[in-house]
Amino acid sequence: xxxxxEVQTTRGAVxxxxxxxxxxxxxxxxxxxxxxxxxxxxxxxxxAAVERAVDGLRRLWDLGVRxxxxxxxxxxxxxxxxxxxxxERSAVRIVVSTGYYTADVLPAYFHTHGPGLLVDGPDxxxxxxxxxxxxxxxxxxxxxxxxxxVTDRPGLTADVQxxxxxxxxxxxxxxxxxxxxxxxxxxxxLDQLRFLTGRxxxxxxxxxxxxxxxxxxxxxxxxxxxxxxxxxxxxxxxHVLPDERRVAVVLDLLxxxxxxxxxxxxxxxxxxxxxxxxWRAVHAPNWHMENIPxxxxxxxxxxxxxxxxxxxxxxxNPARLLAPAKES
Length: 328
Description:
alpha/beta, six-stranded parallel sheet, three-stranded parallel sheet, globular, metal-binding, Phosphotriesterase, hydrolase, AryldialkylPase_Zn-BS, zinc ion binding
């Protein structure tokens, strides 16, 4: 069991109260290693990407950001050793994650390994997640501080349910929180919460991610009224929803008294093979980790958000969520 109140970072455990301003849903590098091996992306240069990340984190520090949660898990090209090389040159703390990113099916390995399958035994997903959380990721000794799961348009497919079940078991074993990717238009954050709470996860330990893609206040309030926190975590993804409208939703929910149930972030990356830098420069120029301190915070303040609101959204809520729950 992780020590209560201690959050795992690339530099070891820190007290949750020391995290400061936190971007709780970001990525350093998003890749597809098999694709990269066989069909290298012309914009990927590892040395240059590492330098870009180091420079970006330096600017974030100057803007007051103290912690970034990297939600790059299996399925998104996680390489914690590379992240550690960036983190050791940065004052910004990095929290890495475990989980599996699939919206529909898992790789064939998981169809032959597990209870009652060809290679019978415990579910390797649960074993992998718990090992990442308690021993460290891929021999780095760096322990994950967050669990990440996904539902998207396909909904709760059999393999998605398997990932969520493994995450619930790992959460109950370690107390580490669960954050999610959702398809807000389908309102499937509610399905996630029903599934996870049905397996013993307290809603207060769940962040329903990408809720900021929705302007449906009834849906967002229904999520928060369970006790869950919603991720208003795609600022800069204006090809999905303009920031002006994302800000308006946050302000509406602040006025309704939900400051303690929201977190802010970008779901940005210093390099993503899915949406590479050249595409982002043209289609989503504000989709980067400096957007909240540079553009969004001033807009929130202009709309009536107080310093107390901002502290709650960017400091207090992430600290509360990232601190592992005590084992019951």
